[in-house]
Amino acid sequence: MNAPNAAGWRPSMGEAGEMKNQTSSGDYGLMLEEALSFELGAADKCGVDLDPADRAPSEALGRFLRQSAPGLPGLTEPETVRHYTRLSRQNYAIDLGPFPLGSCTMKHNPRLNEKMARLPGFADVHPLQPQATVQGALEVIEQLADWLITLTGMASVAMSPKAGAHGELCGLLCIRAALDARGEARDVVLVPESAHGTNPATAAFAGFKVESIPATAAGRVDLEALKAKLGPKVAGVMITNPNTCGLFEPDMRAIADAVHAAGGYVYCDGANFNAIVGKVRPGDLGVDAMHINLHKTFSTPHGGGGPGAGPVVLSEALAPFAPLPFVTRGADGSIHLVEEENAGEGHDQAFGRMVAFHGQMGMFTRALTYILSHGADGLRQVAEDAVLNANYVLRACEDLLPAPFAASGPCMHEALFSDAGLAEGFSTLDIAKGLIDEGFHPMTVYFPLVVKGAMLVEPTETESKAGLDRFIASLRSLAERAKAGDESLHSAPHFAPRRRLDETLAARKPVLVWQGEPGVAGTPSLSEIGGS
Ligand SMILES: *Cc1c(COP(=O)(O)O)cnc(C)c1O
C-alpha cells in the first residue's frame, strides 16, 4: 500500500482526476487498492485456533528441526479471502472482455466444457488406476485422437505433450529419431524470420542448429531462399501456417516437396490452426509433424488460467517414432494403453515418453466437448468467422494504422498493424497502454519481429460485431491521439491500478522473496521496478 502523503492522503491507484487524490484509504470508488499479504499479515495472527503443542518437537527431525519462525504472513480467514478476491478484481480475463492478443487465440470457453471436465469419471480418476476401471476416460482420449487425425489428414497423433512448445519438442524428437533410424546426422533446422520464439528455442533445445529463412516483401517464406539453404545437413524446417503475420503460406506444398526431395522433414507450427480448421488438412500440404494447441483452437482455458495440451499429429514417415503411451482398441472392443516399446503392438520404435502419464485429461475432455458440440460444420464456421472478424478489424483501421501486408489481400485470423505514421516519439506501446484505459486488454505488441512496432490483433470468432465495433472505436481514437501527439498517452494507463512498470527490469530482476517485516508496508517497494 502506498504511504500517506504529507496531507495524510494515500496517493491513489490512478490519476483519474481530482477526486482520486482525496480518498484517505487509497481506494477509489469500488476499485480497491491491495497490499502484499506480508504487509497485511502479522506473525502472531492465525486463521485457526490451535491448541498449544503438548510435547516438544520430535528429536527425530534432527538437523531439520526448524530454528526460527517460518516467516509466513499470518492472516485471518476473512482477510485471506478478501486479499485474493481484491487481487482477482485487478485481473483481466476472457470472461470480462475481449483479449485481442495475436498468436494466442483467446476465445470464449463454453461452460459446457467445464461441466463435462468436472464429471467425476473424468475429474477424479487416477493415472495409475486399473485400465478396466477407466475405459470411459481412455475412450475420450481415443475419440479426440480420431478427430484430430481426421481434421488434419495425418496418419497418427501423439496425445501426451502438454503445451504447444512441448509439442514442438515432441515433433523434433520424432524427426531426430527418424534420422537416427536412417543413420543420418543432419543437424540444421530452418526457421522463418517471422516464427514464434518457441520454434528456434525448441530446435536449439533439441540439439539442432537454427538457420533463419528471410521473408518476402509480402510477408511469406521466401521459397527461393529456403531452397538455397537445403542440403545434406538440413534435418527439416519449422513453418507456421497461417504464419505469424496472419497470412496463409500459399507455397506450402512447394516448400514441403523441396524439403522432402532434399531428405528433410516438415514441422508445421499448428498454433494458428483456428484459422483453417475444417477448411484445410495439413496432411494434404505435405506436413510431417504439427502440434495442435487444444487450448487455442479448441477453446479450453489458457493464459495464466489453466494448463495447455499440445498433441502432435504425425505423417506415415514419423508415426513409428511417436512417444508412448498410445491408446489402442483390442479385438474384444476394450481400450488399453500401450506403455512399452517392446510390447509387439506397433510402437517398437517409439523414442520414449514426453510425460509420466497420459497427458492433460481435463483439456482432452474440454476439447472433445467443444468439437462434438460444434460438429464438423460448426468447426468450419469457427475458421470462417475468425477470418471474417480479423478482416473486419483490418479494413476498419488500415486508414489510420498502416497494415504492412494488407495490399496483398485479405488476412487470415489476425490483423497486423505497424506504428509507422504516429507522431514523433509515439509508438505501439502508447497505443497498447491506452487500450488498458479504454477497458481492453492490449493486443500482442512488437511481434512478429519482421514488422517494426508490430500490433497483432486476433479477435477470434467469439467476438460479436457490436463488440468488435467498440474495440475498433477505441483503437481508432487512440491512433488519432497518437497521430496528433497527445502527450497524455505517454503516461497511460491512467485508470489502472498501476502506471507503467519497467517490464525489462521486472523480468530480469524479479523481486521474488519478501524481505521486510511482517505487518510493515514498503519493502521491497514497487518503486524498485518503476511502479507507483
Ligand atoms: C502459442 C504459440 C506457440 C506456443 O504454444 P504454448 O502452448 O504457449 O507453448 C507456438 N507457436 C505459435 C505460433 C503460437 O501462437
From TrEMBL:
Main enzyme class: oxidoreductase
EC number(s) on file: 1.4.4.2
Any Pfam family: GcvP2_C
Residue segments, region Disordered: 1-25
SUPFAM superfamilies linked to this entry: PLP-dependent transferases
Superkingdom field: Bacteria
Keyword Glycoprotein part of the UniProt annotation: no
Functional note: The glycine cleavage system catalyzes the degradation of glycine. The P protein binds the alpha-amino group of glycine through its pyridoxal phosphate cofactor; CO(2) is released and the remaining methylamine moiety is then transferred to the lipoamide cofactor of the H protein.
Name assigned to this protein: glycine dehydrogenase (aminomethyl-transferring)
Species per Swiss-Prot/TrEMBL record: Novosphingobium soli
UniProt lineage: Bacteria, Pseudomonadati, Pseudomonadota, Alphaproteobacteria, Sphingomonadales
